[in-house]
Amino acid sequence: SKLLICAPVEALDCGPGEGCSKERPEDVGAPNFLRIDFANKVIVGPKQTTPILLMDKSNDQILLQGKELGYAWTLVLDQESGTMTVTLVNREAAFVLFGPCTPL
């Protein structure tokens, strides 16, 4: 339930028939930081605020899902380590982001 700040530090850019290439998060349009606001069910970036449409919590992870700018996204937060894995997908491509999160 705490407000978290997360920093994507690694990115993969994947396309059909192309495999995945390692990129910098900013090269794929990811923000330097994003905030997860569980109470208001939103993820806040520097330019966009997107609603969290689904939240599922288990003993070891929290799964969040939503949509933004033509992409479906899933963010999974490891409750023990505080790391996140994010996927963003549309009909043409997929991006995978990795990074740490910490309470604000």
Write structural notes for this entry:
With 104 residues, the chain is mostly beta strands. The chain has strands spanning 4-6, 10-15, 19-23, 34-37, 42-44, 49-51, 54-57, 61-68, 71-78, 83-89, 94-103. Strand 7 (54-57) and strand 8 form a beta hairpin. It starts with a strand and ends with a strand. The mean pLDDT is 95.
Average pLDDT, to the nearest integer?
95
Instruction: Report the radius of gyration as a whole number of Å.
Output: 13 Å
Q: Note the beta-strand portion.
A: over 45%
Helices and strands, in order, run as EEEEEEEEEEE
Report how far apart the termini are: 11 Å
Helix content: under 10%
Tell the overall outline. globular
Q: How many DSSP E strands?
A: 11
Question: Helix tally?
Answer: 0
Structural class of the secondary structure composition? mainly beta
Sheet with the most strands?
11 strands, antiparallel
Low-confidence stretches: none
In short:
The protein is mainly β.
List the helices and strands and how they pair.
Layout: E1 4-6, E2 10-15, E3 19-23, E4 34-37, E5 42-44, E6 49-51, E7 54-57, E8 61-68, E9 71-78, E10 83-89, E11 94-103
Antiparallel strand pairs: 1-4, 1-11, 2-3, 2-11, 4-5, 5-6, 7-8, 8-9, 9-10, 10-11
List keywords for this structure.
104 residues, mainly beta, 11-stranded antiparallel sheet
